[in-house]
């Protein structure tokens, strides 16, 4: 698999492919994918690719019916390459980390759009247990949720233009601080307990006591 940042054409292909197969449950664009991958890389617990790749599309029932295996493999490979690039910047070159925000033109001006990235980040947060953040770090997460959570986003209606721009400026440092905290304070994944068969023992089954007799000839009569 290739490493390093994706080219503009590769990012455009990812964006077009997401748009081609997106649903009400899936991410909507490459900016949301970037935010989700950033949160996954910052998670307090490891998340298996099989799990988060399903979450990209909103679950197993929403996985695309790919036009060809080659298309599917290309999407996965580019996504993993982009994830690797984000990881390298977060871990080794934080000064080079930049969220992949979107843009739109309005009245001849190019405006930064952060909502999709933040929604993707919060989608990634939901794949693990982020409880237990210190209050100061919870404020950092809230700075991202302000633009990525419908309930919190209502507060933006009362922001002045300067307050809104200031809230956008908080997103990048918040993501770096959250990543740094969970890398230093990872959570131990819960140990999977063996599944026990608590079903009723049949009368002709071997007795659970280990006598070697049939249950009906042993403990069933006790």
From TrEMBL:
Gene3D superfamilies cross-referenced by the UniProt entry: YgfB uncharacterised protein family UPF0149, PF03695
Top-rank lineage group of the source organism: Bacteria
Entries under Pfam families matching the protein: SEC-C (PF02810), UPF0149 (PF03695)
Name by which UniProt lists this protein: YecA family protein
Source organism (scientific name): Pseudocitrobacter corydidari
């Amino acid at each position: 698999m290739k490493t390093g940042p994706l080219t503009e054409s590769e990012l455009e292909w990812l964006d077009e492919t997401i748009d081609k197969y997106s649903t009400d449950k899936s991410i909507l664009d490459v900016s949301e994918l970037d935010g989700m991958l950033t949160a996954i890389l910052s998670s307090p617990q490891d998340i298996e690719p099989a799990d988060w790749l399903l979450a990209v599309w909103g679950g197993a029932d929403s996985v695309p019916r790919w036009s060809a295996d080659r298309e599917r493999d290309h999407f996965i490979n580019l996504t993993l390459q982009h994830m690797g690039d984000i990881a390298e910047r977060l871990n080794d070159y934080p000064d080079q980390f930049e969220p992949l925000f979107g843009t739109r033109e309005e009245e001849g001006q190019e405006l930064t759009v952060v909502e999709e990235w933040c929604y993707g980040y919060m989608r990634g947060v939901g794949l693990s247990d982020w409880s237990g953040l210190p209050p100061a770090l919870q404020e950092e997460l809230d700075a991202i949720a302000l633009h990525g959570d419908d309930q919190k986003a209502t507060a933006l209606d009362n922001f002045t233009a300067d307050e809104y721009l200031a809230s956008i400026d908080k997103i990048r440092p918040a993501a770096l601080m959250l990543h740094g905290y969970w890398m230093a304070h990872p959570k131990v994944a819960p140990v999977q307990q063996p599944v026990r068969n608590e079903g009723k023992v049949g009368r002709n089954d071997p007795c659970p006591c280990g006598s070697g007799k049939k249950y009906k000839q042993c403990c069933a009569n006790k």
